[in-house]
Design a protein that fits this description.
Layout (H helix, E strand, L loop, with lengths): L2 E3 L12 E2 L2 E5 H6 L17 E7 L7 E6 H14 L7 E4 L6 H12 L4 E4 L14 H8 L3 E4 L1 H12 L10 E4 L6 H11 L2 E6 L9 E2 L13 E2 L4 E7 L5 E4 L6 E6 L6 E2 L9 E2 L2 E10 L5 E6 L4 E3 L2 E3 L1 H8 L5 E11 L3 E10 L7 H11 L9 E4 L13 H19 L5 E7 L3 E7 L4 H8 L5 E4 L1
Parallel strand pairs: 1-3, 6-7, 6-8, 8-9, 9-10, 23-24, 26-27
Antiparallel strand pairs: 2-3, 4-5, 5-16, 10-11, 11-12, 13-14, 13-15, 15-18, 17-18, 18-19, 20-21, 22-23, 25-26
Helix pairs in contact: 2-3, 5-6
Length: about 450
């Protein structure tokens, strides 16, 4: 082991010969001493050896490091290439960030394993100006076979077709994941372009993919498809502590669990592993049902439930309703703190280009269309942009911070207290409200104590 440095041109490079017991070497000199054609040593790699750490969990909880083995990665690259009959003629476009498993595997190693080509759509991928608006032209230029997308990109590609761009025959299908896509958008895209959208499901802890709609079989709109070969996948019922009770019946909602050669070794933070494993099964935290022919259908997230006075509300009910409004582009429903019920449902929305709606209209819309009274959001707010992760998932933790700040400030204002409220993520409490410039700390404390949010006065 050694530490390396790169000499700076025109600068003195006074580097100590050792640091912390390790030799310090000139990187360029060390590189020049290496064989350009082969390794100067024999490396023994076992399938259980760790190949990579992937950052995960930031959208739904505390960020963690997932440990992938060489066996995990080799299996995933091999099985995807076989499932979709890849060969040397395959050309994949990659617009997702290279620190994400989708880019590394779904449009990476599986293509390379069959001798195909991958075209990186600039260093910033889909986030680079002009990439999305020119996707059809890029497909034509490189004769791309497929690439991975999120629903917002499908919508943008449809708009390009509406503006006169002609789909390219080389494009066989798109992989779509990260967020559910509406059946209407899926059917419309295939009808106008002739390109199939294959919805799938996966997570970093499962290396990348766990299920897919088949290329050479029936595509069921809204389904995340069939399990991967050699990987087991089922829905189970867990108790309140997350312990296994039983397998689900056909079409019964439960938590997805997976087991197989793609399931990761565990988190680098070993204390987190007890939360996600029972035996050889990985608990995904996602809710789904499995139909009589093996297709899985996502129904929500176990950890994403809004719990209103002990009543569980699936935010998907709210999101599915609001997305039917003709002016709305994106929706995120979540629970905001409430001093009585613990949580009440609220929703954040963004509008389609050139569209708008007032909040009274939206509240009436959900009141008329959500049959479950407890699920009707008490607050709906429009945002200029929806916070999303690098791969297009709506980032609900930042919305929870926003909602919590709004509720606490309102509660204090209602009793005539002025204060600055800042809400941040916190390693110990998950969320921490910081109160400053408060005009009456004693009365404020009595109000804040009625919520389950941890707080401190600055």
């Amino acid at each position: 082991k050694a530490l390396f440095y790169v000499p700076q041109a025109g600068a003195e490079n006074n580097i100590e010969a050792t640091e912390g017991g390790l030799p310090v070497l000139d990187f360029n000199k060390a590189l020049a001493e290496q064989n350009a054609d082969a390794l100067n040593f024999v490396r023994q790699v076992g399938k259980e050896d760790i190949a990579a750490y992937f950052h995960t969990g930031g959208t739904t909880g505390t960020p963690k490091l997932a440990q992938h083995t060489h066996g995990n990665q080799l299996f995933l690259a091999s099985v995807l290439g076989d499932m979709f009959a890849y060969n040397e003629s395959i050309v994949a476009l990659c617009g997702l960030p290279l620190f994400h498993v989708n880019a590394v595997f779904a449009t990476g190693l599986n293509v390379f394993s069959k001798g195909g080509q991958v075209v990186l759509l600039t260093a910033n991928g889909f986030r680079t100006d002009g990439v999305i608006s020119n996707l059809w032209k890029l497909v034509e230029k490189y004769q791309a076979t497929f690439f991975s997308v999120v629903p917002t990109i499908v919508t943008a590609m449809l708009q390009c077709v509406a503006n006169g761009l002609t789909p390219t025959p080389s494009l066989k299908y798109l992989f779509c994941g990260a967020a559910p896509i509406s059946a209407q958008t899926l059917r419309q895209f295939t009808s106008k372009t002739g390109v199939r959208i294959l919805e799938g499901y996966g997570m970093t802890e499962g290396t990348c993919v766990s299920s897919f709609n088949p290329e050479f079989g029936e595509l069921r709109a809204g389904s995340i498809g069939l399990r991967l070969p050699y990987q087991q996948m089922k829905c189970v019922i867990l108790d309140e502590e997350g312990h296994y009770l039983r397998d689900c019946e056909q079409d019964e909602q439960g938590v997805i669990v997976i087991s197989g050669p793609n399931v990761f070794l565990g988190y680098k933070q070993a204390e987190k592993n007890a939360e996600v494993f029972y035996g050889d099964w990985l608990i995904t935290g996602d809710l789904a049902r499995q139909d009589n022919e093996g297709y899985f259908w996502l129904t929500g997230r176990a950890k994403d439930l809004i719990i209103r006075g002990g009543h569980n509300i699936d935010p998907k009910v709210i999101e599915d309703t609001l997305t039917q409004h003709p002016s709305i582009e994106l929706v995120a429903a979540l629970g905001q703190p409430d001093s009585y019920a613990g949580e009440l449902p609220c929703a954040y929305v963004t509008f389609k280009s050139g569209k708008s709606a007032n909040m009274a209209e939206l509240k009436e819309f959900v009141r008329q269309n959500i049959p479950e009274r407890a699920a009707i959001p008490v607050h709906i707010e429009a945002l200029e942009t929806m916070p999303v992760t690098a791969v297009g998932k709506i980032f609900k933790p930042s919305l929870r911070l926003l909602a919590t700040r709004r509720v606490l400030e309102s509660a204090l204002n209602d009793i005539g207290i002025s204060a600055n409220v800042s809400v941040q993520t916190n390693k110990t409490h998950g969320m921490l409200a910081q109160i400053s410039h408060c005009t009456n700390a004693e009365d404020a404390k009595q109000i804040l104590d009625t919520f389950t949010v941890h707080y401190e006065f600055m």
